[in-house]
């Protein structure tokens, strides 16, 4: 304890030399609830809307119209003439009406459905792009085991993220903010502590007006070590025409003859309770001649497979969808080509199963995917930066496979689908492998706006269909659901769709090109989730009466990096949770006198603001953290400061030269806004260029040399040998 006290004293004086900057970061204080204006029940937005959302309009043009949102749902949507607007406003005094025409602009802003991102790893998005990824890997299991990757990612994420539960909460909240400022309203990814904060989570049943069960999203369904038993022992039986359940039940009866398992009861809750008892299982099964990893498969893996089957077979609640990694790597990797076959052996080739990446799935299988309503989630940047290959996207599109975009994660991906779509577009237009991508996506016309339309759908209606939340169905008005809809769609603008929309600057005559090509974080002028504004231009939020209820952005500052880099700060002296919290309090307060100068390389034409929530009150961990440190994790400024201080000073690479590697310690803290992060912008803008050489070309050119340099190839070969 002596050392710990000394450490706190050191922290309290160690940062005294950090001089306050002249420009102050503005922090808005939320008014007491009784002083806050009560917003009308109905929010109305008047602006331009893509013609595709009106039956009698040109899909590639705009219509001036309005949407009325109440009880989380779009209740009315119609065209309106400019000359009719003032009369409409006068006739609806009880509604909160916003004209989406900014000062000095001749055009109304454009209303789009909120974007949907079906693939993200939300814990590590406060890391920068991994520079060592140069397209050299064969599959995901190769780079996951590569020491350089472990140093670059886990070496920078640990141990600080374990210091307090609230720290982990901060990482998830950062991902939600990163998504929000780029127009995402539905984000897939493991998360917690984000209720009533940021965007909606794809996996949360409460994110929708719907009676369906929550979307399931395990990271992996197929782990090669665990599936060796299925491939070698069950595969021959299943290929003869039997079910997975029959094959596994027969194997259990063979090796554990006293267990009364059958094809019919193997997935039941009663039988699963027996099978999950590892100790009892080991006692009941024979000791000699057991297949490799048999016990582990039965007690650990099968219950997961059974859970997915039971989800889809449920009669009590209609299932929505399942999202899982599969066949991530190169098309020509021998093991990677087997993962879809393994999925079929398990009997999980089912409607509304959506496969993340799927690059190794043989293209001749795509018609089967389409006929079974199995979707593919395309993350081109992640695929290309890791493997120098991505989906045979032309073949998948021609086969009619439902396609959505996913940003993956920042270390080997982008911050949002709005960034990902620009890389996807360049990949199609450049068509490096001469796969007739442009002709395929334009139906032979060569009209690029058709490509933009298809990519637009991959961020809106396609993912909505894939997660089974595209239908609109009226229902009774109830106390818990007064909307009048039993099912409200996402990914579209229509009466009965969720009131989650984004408002984007008008920069192009084509609504798809406007979003896909031109829109960046500078152009996201308003984000509305469930009919309530969450983020946007200050003028719009002021017009809606939100003065005093928002936090000005950006929070980005180069000082987050430079101040932290000047100091060496030891880890907590003792692992006790209370001591760790005391350490965090001392660490964070050591920066409390430092004012970080805001950084704005973006050139925002208008200040962006984040509507403040009060979600910390409902979480005991974050409340305790706020009391100990003074940091409110509802606020973007405090979130940024907490993450920057910890990741820059408390990583294994920074503190532990034995387990970590100092050369992999972060040199800077990534900005919330991409336009404030020159390293991030350089990586994504230089990756695939329409003209001239680019990073993708260089990666492919030197791939064999990099593989030899990094001594790669062993793991893919071992996997291929096991799955012949």
UniProtKB/TrEMBL annotation:
Domain of life (superkingdom): Bacteria
Protein name per UniProt: Uncharacterized protein
Tagged with keyword Chloroplast: no
Keyword Signal set for record: yes
InterPro entries: Metal-dep_hydrolase_composite, Metal_Hydrolase, MTA/SAH_deaminase
Any one GO molecular function term: hydrolase activity, acting on carbon-nitrogen (but not peptide) bonds
Keywords per UniProt: Hydrolase, Signal
Gene3D superfamilies cross-referenced by the UniProt entry: Metal-dependent hydrolases, Urease, subunit C, domain 1
Signal peptide segment: 1-18
Source lineage: Bacteria, Pseudomonadati, Bdellovibrionota, Bdellovibrionia, Bdellovibrionales
